[in-house]
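Structure Section — protein described below
Tokens — whole-number codes for backbone shape
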Amino acid sequence: MQFIDLKSRHQLIGDKINARIQKVMSHGQFILGPEVREVEEKLAQYTGSKHCVTVSSGTDSLLIALMALGVGAGDEVITAPYTWISTAEVIALLGAKPIFVDIRPDTWNMDETLLEAAITDKTKAIMPVCIYGQCPDMDAINEIAKKYNLPVIEDAAQSFGATYKGKKSCNLSNIGSTSFFPSKPLGCYGDGGALFTNDDELAEKFRWIRVHGQERKHHHPILGINGRMDTIQAAILLEILEVFPDEVKKRKNLGQTYSEGLAGVEGVRTPSIGANNTSVYAQYTILSDQREEIQQSFKDKNIPSVSYYSVPLHLQPVFENLGHKDGGFPIAEKVANQCLSLPMSPYLTQEDQAKVIDAISKIEKS
């Protein structure tokens, strides 16, 4: 059993992907070729955004977003402590300070009721994270941001394809950012990412920044990075996009099957999906005080699992200078101590999913 099955999709559409790659090899425009423009148009259309700008990775998409907003030394950017390090990493790389707001005990996303208290005169942006495939309460976050005239960057690396109040993730705030890392809901065959916005000026800055701040040949009005998506990865995404809507449906059904199968298991808490949300279950994650026992049971049965973010960002040694201690963000710490992600992908078989549920159900409760 694979934790994330990337092979089955390729078996399904591999011939079409290979044909796309061969087309790129034939025309030879390996950087910013026609497939890049094509996939940007299709991604924008999918999300309902006016602009999509593809970039080299999800991490670079966050970095470019912050650079376009002028975030720098002395600024503060508010985000959540329970996520992958790149969210806070890019803030620190620009000389700004990550300000953490604890997560909700139900959806594990940023607790919007704690957000306003974290805003200071140094706050430059708010960056909520769509953890495990569903969005935070974006209307509440946007309303607070508007009150203080602050931009919101939706870190949607895990939620491409999800919806909030009927609107697609990546089109819920000033800027949407996502990742096409292979294990993500919409993943390519290497690194890749994208930025989404309805703001013409921001979109233009994104395009400049991804090519070293270049507005036109030999003219660089702002600092930038080498942040372009390879044409081959764009070509691969074009083909994967054709099956993606069906994969989203499969993810939803698998998530529901997990939740129903584990509903009565003592000591196991299944994900809570917000009333206004759909989830693409980038990971299907449970909470349990008996995480180690479950992992051992899985190991005995050759079932893979991962404890994502088991050390929250505020307790990472690289952020020791921020002065946070154990107990500073209790919900994030509790989730980090109990979280366990189960095998999940659109191509997880019913038989394998039943084995996972059975292995958890037979754990002896202490």
